[in-house]
Design a protein that fits this description.
The chain contains 24 helices and seven strands. By secondary structure, it is mainly α. It folds into two domains: about 400 residues, no CATH class; about 180 residues, no CATH class.
């Protein structure tokens, strides 16, 4: 695994053959009696690292199941992968490109069977299907770690490659999102493949390097559109080759090859971008509009995307790696400036673009994490080598110190993530209490913090309700209030209310309506209430609703995600859903079941409800 080609030498470059030379090679981490033994040790180190990376990424992979509580996970990829069994390979959905959906579809077909088998499995108990899709993401995330190592080796040396892969292994965001069936982590595998190819373009300029870079670029774009950021690095590496003596013709030809391969790979993984071009274009426009829409994202209080992403680097990757990456870029400016031009502009331009949008999420930063990890690893060993000049005997200690410094934060929080996700979700705990204490057919109100199936015994629908649900749910998905204006609609009219708008249609009058119609149990989740508390000026009636609900009810049950004596965590569209703060002890929002006490919900004289 660790075998790599040696870059051309400075002497070769001096001969005017257009090839590029490598930077000054760093001192090996350790000496080995033979090249073969040294390669064996490096290979063993990489295998151990990849095993650890995979273990981190599948620890707690079954969290929340059989319910997929992440709204994006529940709506986008796995359900589309299942849908393909019932029609052509056209996903009929282009807000996200379909490469990961196709992989999930093929995996389900191989593991479970055809349309009938998958449909039956999903209806009876979808746990296995969700686990398969999540493990697929974890495998691709682990592959990205290995490719980051290869890219780091080719750009600098084995030490930097291994440490860059190590930083990437423990970085919180890649670890957490490997446990969800989303396309964020799967995008990193082809993106890192492209980065490896780009490293080859810079060092060798061979046709095969352009081919690898192009294939990686095309597949990355076919998995998540923002994966195309590696195009910036590819162009920069090609420019380096173009400016080298005798390299102009080869670089021009190579870029054409990379572009052609990128197009072929993109269409192979997303063929209906051409076959159903109108739908593809509509999906792109919708994605762009959603990224720029703040009006519908109640609770998104950040007003500076650049500051937000700087902050997100600090916890999603780590503050020390971020600082080291900046130092690595500065040091490379003096050591090998062309490497700066290949790596740094891609990161800067990506942050500038993403920060200019109106919505910000930490996971959207991940496409540039491999580059930042390589820069950080370079700075770490430069620092260790600098310290060695003063105290040679301390070299091993210095190496250990810088490795711990750049990996410690991610290591701690990724382990914490595994612990949290390995415990029962608060929404499952609340449901268990409801099953034990609220009879079948009871009228309840449930905020949209759970999927619709939460109200049903999966695989065993109730014959006592028209839709098979265990309880009769208040229709929170429709309202007589217009969520866009806050005004009451004409009599008899109503509007569909999505998750984003739920807090906008809450009023204290609803509590009386619940009591009059016999909806006596009200299930509240902090991921909804927190939106209102984050921006109280926008939805003052929602806060009045919660106060009225508390005044006219008693708490029947409460499940907290926090460790004893810790929390709550202030609402945030990252930390509230990825449980990064150490205050979390288990996944999920704070779930509270209120028992109303008036109207039809008033206890009978005999003491029964």
């Amino acid at each position: 695994m660790s075998t790599v080609e040696s870059p051309p030498t400075r002497e070769a470059d001096a001969q005017g053959d257009g090839r590029q030379f490598a930077p000054v090679q760093m001192t090996p981490m350790f000496s080995a009696p033979s090249l073969g033994l040294e390669r064996l040790w490096w290979g063993l180190a990489v295998v151990v690292l990849l095993a650890f990376a995979f273990g981190l990424r599948i620890w707690g992979v079954d969290h929340g199941l059989p319910y997929a509580y992440n709204a994006d996970e529940n709506a986008h990829f796995v359900t589309r992968a299942i849908g393909i069994f019932g029609h052509s390979w056209d996903p009929n959905y282009y807000v996200n490109p379909p490469a990961y959906t196709y992989l999930a579809h093929m995996l389900l077909g191989i593991s479970i069977g055809g349309r009938q088998s998958v449909a039956s499995e999903f209806a009876a108990d979808p746990t296995q299907i969700w686990i398969l899709a999540r493990v697929l993401a974890a495998v691709l995330g682990t592959l990205a770690v290995w490719l980051t190592y290869l890219a780091g080796v080719r750009l600098v040396d084995r030490r930097v490659g291994l440490l860059a892969a190590g930083i990437f292994t423990v970085s919180f965001l890649p670890v957490f999102y490997s446990k969800l069936a989303l396309n964020d982590v799967p995008t990193l595998a082809p993106l890192c493949l492209a980065l490896w190819g780009i490293a080859g373009v810079l060092r060798f300029g061979r046709k095969r390097d352009y081919v690898i870079a192009g294939i990686g670029l095309g597949l990355a774009c076919a998995t998540k559109y923002t994966g195309g950021i590696v195009l910036v690095a590819l162009i920069a590496a090609t420019v380096v080759q173009f400016t080298a003596r005798g390299g102009k013709a080869g670089a021009s030809r190579g870029l054409a090859i990379a572009g052609g391969m990128a197009l072929v790979a993109f269409l192979a993984a997303n063929p209906y971008a051409v076959l159903n071009f109108p739908a593809f274009l509509e999906g792109l426009i919708h994605q762009s509009d959603a990224s720029g829409d703040t009006a519908g994202k109640l609770g998104l209080t950040q007003n500076n995307g650049y500051a937000y992403y700087l902050w997100s680097f600090g916890w999603g990757l780590g503050w020390v790696p971020l600082i080291f990456a900046v130092g690595g870029a500065v040091r490379l400016w003096f050591d090998e400036r062309r490497l700066v031009w290949v790596l740094v502009p891609a990161v800067v331009l990506f942050v500038l673009f993403m920060g200019s949008q109106s919505r910000y999420f930490g996971r959207w930063l991940m496409p540039v994490f491999p580059i930042v990890c390589i820069l950080a690893a370079y700075a770490a060993f430069e620092l260790a080598d600098w310290g060695e000049r003063f105290k040679p005997a301390l070299k091993p200690t210095l190496v250990v110190a810088v490795v711990v410094a750049v990996c410690a934060q991610g290591f701690v929080y990724s382990l914490h993530s595994g612990l949290v996700l390995s415990r029962e979700d608060t929404r499952n705990l609340a449901r268990d209490w409801m099953v034990a204490n609220v009879p079948v057919g009871t009228k309840i109100v449930v905020e949209p913090v759970v999927p619709d199936l939460w109200a049903q015994d999966i695989g065993n629908p109730s014959p006592l309700t028209s839709n098979g649900n265990r309880w009769i749910k208040f229709p929170t998905s429709r309202s007589e209030i217009d969520p866009d204006t806050g005004e009451k609609l004409p009599f008899g009219e109503s509007k569909i209310v999505n998750i984003e708008d739920f807090e906008k249609v809450l009023t204290p009058d609803l509590v009386s309506q619940y009591e009059e119609q016999g909806y006596c149990f009200v299930v509240v989740g902090s991921t909804q209430r927190g939106r209102a508390e984050a921006e109280p000026d926008k939805v003052p009636r929602a806060l009045e609703y919660y106060r009225e609900l508390e005044r006219r009810s008693e708490v029947a049950y409460r499940a907290s995600p926090y460790a004893k004596g810790k929390g709550p965590v202030k609402f945030n569209f990252d930390w509230t859903f990825d449980y990064y703060p150490l205050a979390y002890n288990r996944p999920g929002p704070e779930m509270t079941v209120y028992r109303l006490l008036g109207g039809q919900c008033a206890p009978s004289p005999l003491g029964t409800g």
